[in-house]
C-alpha cells in the first residue's frame, strides 16, 4: 500500500471524519492522488468516504425500525424489498417486513417512486453496504436512507425533468457530434438515436442491468468531483473512449445491442487501457482510459470544451423543479418551443453568454473552465463583415454557396484549424437560402471530421453591441476597444495566418471610412429633408429617425397610428458612440451613460441566452451588419420599390393587411420563429409616404439608397 493510500485511510479513520468535520476539499485532494482509488477501498472505508463526500456536518436521526410501515407497502414496493434483501446478502438480522417498511417509508418521505431507475440506484448502494463489515442490521438501513437521500438531492435526475426528455436526447446527440463527429455520424448512418441512450445512462447514474460493482467504481470518481452536472460528461467520455468498439459494428441491431448492454467498467491496475484513437489536432485530446482518474480527466476535457451556455442549459433541463418558471437567464418558453428550437439545429448553437464570455468587454462570473477561443467563420455579406465583425472572424460569405466544389475549397483552406472551436456565423435572419447554405456548410465540416463546430447568427449579439458589452471590429466601430492582441496569435497557431490581414483594421483607415459613411448620410439627409440632423449610425436607425421626424408633421391622427407601427426608441443604435469627459461611453442620441456611476438610468440587463422570441423590432436598425450574401444577388430593388409605390401611393382605397409571414421552424438561426404582419398603407393622401417608411421599419425591412431617394424625394 502506497503513501497516498495510507494517508487517505488515516484520514477516513479519524474521529473528525466520522463526525463530518473533514472538508470535502481535503478528501477530494487525497482521492486524486490515487489513480486506482476503487481498488483501495473496502466496504467500510467506501461508506466512510461517501459519508464525507455526500454528507456534511453531524448526522441527523437515529437507527429506528421500519416494521410499522410494512402494512402500508404496495405490491411493487414489496417486490423492491425482495430485491433489496438479495442485494444486502440475505442478512438474517433484517427481515422482509423491515425492508418493506423501509421502502414504503422512504417513498412517502421523499416522494420517490421506486421505478427501474431508482431501484437500480438503491440496489447499487445496498451492494456497497452489504460489504461493510462494521454496520450491522438496522444500521445498514439507516445508512442506506441517509446516502440515498443525499443522492436524490444532489445527483439523481428528478422526475419533473422528464418533460424535457426529447429535448435532452436531441441535445446529447448534438453534444456527441460536437466532440466526436465521426462517432455521431456512425450512429446517424444506422439510424440509432444515441441521445436516448446517453439520457438513459445519466438518469440511471450508470446502472445498466446488475453491474452494481462496476457502477460503484464510477461513483467513486463522480462523487469526488462533487458536481452533479459532471454525470453527463462522465457518460460522454466513457462512450467516446469506447468509440472503436462502436465503429466496428455495421448493423443497427449490433449497435443497439452494444448500447443496451454497455457496462461502465473501469480498467484495474493490471488491465489494459481503452484507447479512443481520437487524434485530430485538438489541444486537449481524450486520452487512453486506464483508470477511474483517467475517466474523470476525460470528463473534465469534455466539460470544459463544451460551450458555457450549453452546459447551463443542460443543467437547467436536467434538474428543473416542478415550480420552475423557465430556464436560467432565458425567456419563459414552453416545452414544445424548446424542443422545436433544438430539433431544428444541425449542430450546437452558440448563445449570447458564449459570445459575452469570449469577446465581452465586461467581466462575468468565472467558472472552473477557461473561456473558449472561437474562430468565427463569418458567412454574411462582405459589406456587413467590414462594417462590424467579431474579433477572430474570417470572412467566408463571398465564397460559401450550396456547391460541393466551393465548400471543399473553403474547407481545405481551414483544415489547419482542425481542433479549434469553429462557429459558422450567419445573419440570424429568416432567409431560406442562407439557412440552407449554413446547414450545408456545417454538415460538410462535420462530415470532414472537424470537432467543435457550432453555429449562430449575428443578430444574436445585437443587444450586446447596443449595450457596448462586446468587442466589435470594423468601420462602424469608431470608438471603443480595438482588436484583441491574443486573437491574431491564436489564429496563427490555428493555421489562419493568411486571413489575418483581412481582419486587422488600421485605425486611420477606420476613421476615414467612418467619415465617408457620415458624409454619405449627410448628403442623403439633405436630399430627403433640409435641416434633418445628421445621424451617427447608418442603416435602419437612419430611416427610423426619418420616420419619427415625418410623423411629427402628420397631425395627431398620423402620430397616433405611427406610434403603433414604429418600434420602441428606448434602445437606440449604439454602434457609433462617444466618450464623455469621464471616459465612459454614452449614446449619441440621448447622451445617456451606458456604464454609469451614480446615474439613475442604468443600462438594461441583457438576456444571456438568445433562445426565445426576445428580438425587438429596434434590433433591425442594424441592417448594414445583417446583410447575407443573398441579399444583393436575389433582390430586385427597382421592382420592389415600384411595387411598394404602386400599392401605397396610387391606390385610392386603403390596402388590405399583408398576411403574416412565419419564420420556417427548421431555421438554424439563434432565436425562436416569429410571425409578423402589418398594414402597408394609409387611407389618407397626407400620410401615405410616412406610412411606407413606418411600415418598412415596423417589419424590419431594409431600404437601399435608391429606395430611400424615391420614397422621400430630393
Automatic annotation (TrEMBL):
* Residues annotated as signal peptide: none
**Residues in Rhodanese domain copies:** 373-395
Q: Indicate where this protein is primarily found.
A: Golgi
List residues of the Rab-GAP TBC domain.
1-226
The record's listing under InterPro entries reads:
Rab-GAP-TBC_dom, Rab-GAP_TBC_sf, Rhodanese-like_dom, TBC1D23
Protein name as it appears in the record: TBC1 domain family member 23
Location in the cell reads: Golgi apparatus, trans-Golgi network
Residue stretches of biased makeup (Polar residues): 659-668
The UniProt entry's GO biological process terms, in alphabetical order, are: retrograde transport, endosome to Golgi; vesicle tethering to Golgi
Q: Which domain of life is it from?
A: Eukaryota
GO CC aspect terms: cytosol; trans-Golgi network
Q: Which PANTHER family match?
A: TBC1 DOMAIN FAMILY MEMBER 23 (PTHR13297:SF5), TBC1 DOMAIN FAMILY MEMBER 23-RELATED (PTHR13297)
Q: Which Gene3D superfamilies match?
A: Ypt/Rab-GAP domain of gyp1p, domain 3 (1.10.472.80)
Amino acid at each position: 500500500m502506497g503513501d497516498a493510500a495510507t494517508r487517505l485511510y488515516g484520514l477516513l479513520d479519524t474521529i473528525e471524519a466520522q463526525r463530518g468535520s473533514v472538508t470535502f476539499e481535503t478528501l477530494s485532494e487525497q482521492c486524486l492522488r490515487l489513480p486506482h482509488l476503487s481498488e483501495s477501498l473496502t466496504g467500510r472505508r467506501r461508506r466512510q468516504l461517501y459519508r464525507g463526500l455526500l454528507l456534511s456536518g453531524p448526522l441527523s436521526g437515529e437507527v429506528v425500525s421500519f416494521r410499522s410501515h410494512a402494512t402500508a407497502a404496495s405490491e411493487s414496493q414489496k417486490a423492491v424489498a425482495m430485491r433489496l434483501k438479495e442485494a444486502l446478502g440475505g442478512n438474517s438480522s433484517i427481515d422482509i417486513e423491515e425492508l418493506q417498511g423501509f421502502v414504503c417509508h422512504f417513498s412517502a418521505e421523499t416522494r420517490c417512486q421506486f421505478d427501474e431507475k431508482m431501484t437500480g440506484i438503491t440496489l447499487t448502494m445496498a451492494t456497497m453496504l452489504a460489504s461493510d463489515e462494521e454496520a450491522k442490521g438496522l444500521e445498514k438501513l439507516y445508512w442506506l436512507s441517509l446516502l440515498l437521500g443525499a443522492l436524490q438531492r444532489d445527483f439523481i435526475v428528478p422526475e419533473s425533468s422528464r418533460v424535457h426528455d426529447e429535448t435532452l436526447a436531441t441535445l446529447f446527440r448534438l453534444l456527441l457530434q460536437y466532440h466526436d463527429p465521426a462517432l455521431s455520424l456512425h450512429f446517424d448512418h444506422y439510424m440509432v438515436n444515441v441521445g436516448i441512450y446517453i439520457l438513459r445512462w445519466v438518469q440511471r447514474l450508470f446502472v445498466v442491468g446488475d453491474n452494481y460493482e462496476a457502477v460503484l467504481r464510477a461513483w467513486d470518481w463522480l462523487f469526488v468531483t462533487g458536481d452533479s452536472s459532471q454525470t453527463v460528461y462522465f457518460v460522454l467520455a466513457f462512450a467516446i473512449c469506447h468509440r472503436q468498439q462502436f465503429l466496428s459494428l455495421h448493423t443497427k441491431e449490433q449497435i443497439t445491442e452494444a448500447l443496451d448492454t454497455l457496462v461502465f467498467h473501469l480498467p484495474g491496475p493490471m488491465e489494459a487501457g481503452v484507447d479512443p484513437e481520437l487524434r485530430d489536432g485538438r489541444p486537449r485530446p481524450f486520452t487512453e482510459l486506464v483508470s477511474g482518474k483517467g475517466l474523470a480527466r476525460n470528463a473534465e476535457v469534455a466539460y470544459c470544451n463544451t460551450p458555457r451556455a450549453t452546459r447551463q442549459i443542460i443543467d437547467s433541463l436536467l434538474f428543473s423543479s416542478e415550480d420552475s418558471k423557465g430556464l436560467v437567464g432565458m425567456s419563459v418558453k414552453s416545452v414544445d418551443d424548446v424542443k422545436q428550437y433544438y430539433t431544428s439545429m444541425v449542430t450546437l448553437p452558440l448563445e449570447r453568454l458564449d459570445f459575452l464570455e469570449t469577446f465581452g468587454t465586461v467581466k462575468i462570473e468565472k467558472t472552473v473552465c477557461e473561456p473558449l477561443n472561437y474562430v468565427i467563420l463569418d458567412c454574411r455579406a462582405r459589406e456587413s463583415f467590414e462594417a462590424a465583425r467579431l474579433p477572430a472572424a474570417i470572412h467566408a460569405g463571398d465564397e460559401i454557396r450550396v456547391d460541393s466544389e466551393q465548400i471543399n475549397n473553403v474547407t481545405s483552406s481551414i483544415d489547419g484549424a482542425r481542433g479549434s472551436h469553429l462557429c459558422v456565423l450567419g445573419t440570424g435572419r429568416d432567409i431560406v437560402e442562407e439557412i440552407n447554405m449554413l446547414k450545408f456548410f456545417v454538415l460538410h465540416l462535420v462530415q470532414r471530421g472537424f470537432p467543435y463546430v457550432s453555429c449562430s447568427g449575428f443578430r444574436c449579439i445585437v443587444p450586446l453591441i447596443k449595450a457596448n458589452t462586446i468587442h466589435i471590429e470594423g468601420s462602424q466601430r469608431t470608438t471603443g476597444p480595438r482588436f484583441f492582441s491574443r486573437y491574431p496569435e491564436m489564429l496563427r497557431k490555428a493555421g489562419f495566418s493568411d486571413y489575418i490581414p483581412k481582419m486587422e483594421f488600421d485605425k486611420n483607415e477606420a476613421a476615414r471610412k467612418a467619415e465617408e459613411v457620415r458624409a454619405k448620410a449627410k448628403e442623403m439627409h439633405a436630399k430627403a429633408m433640409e435641416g434633418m440632423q445628421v445621424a451617427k449610425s447608418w442603416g435602419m436607425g437612419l430611416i427610423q429617425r426619418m420616420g419619427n421626424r415625418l410623423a411629427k408633421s402628420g397631425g395627431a391622427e398620423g402620430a397616433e397610428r405611427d406610434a403603433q407601427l414604429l418600434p420602441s426608441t428606448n434602445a437606440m443604435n449604439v454602434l457609433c458612440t462617444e466618450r464623455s469627459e469621464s471616459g465612459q461611453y454614452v449614446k449619441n442620441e440621448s447622451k445617456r451613460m451606458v456604464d454609469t456611476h451614480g446615474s439613475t438610468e442604468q443600462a438594461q440587463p441583457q438576456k444571456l441566452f438568445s433562445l426565445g422570441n426576445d428580438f425587438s423590432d429596434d434590433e433591425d436598425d442594424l441592417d448594414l451588419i445583417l446583410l447575407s450574401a443573398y441579399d444583393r444577388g436575389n433582390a430586385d430593388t427597382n421592382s420592389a420599390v415600384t411595387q411598394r409605390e404602386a400599392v401605397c401611393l396610387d391606390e385610392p382605397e386603403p390596402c388590405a393587411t399583408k398576411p403574416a409571414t412565419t419564420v420556417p421552424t427548421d431555421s438554424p438561426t439563434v432565436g425562436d420563429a416569429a410571425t409578423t404582419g402589418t398594414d402597408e398603407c394609409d387611407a389618407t393622401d397626407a400620410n401615405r409616404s410616412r406610412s411606407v417608411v413606418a411600415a418598412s421599419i415596423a417589419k424590419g425591412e431594409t431600404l437601399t439608397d435608391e429606395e430611400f431617394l424615391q420614397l422621400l424625394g430630393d
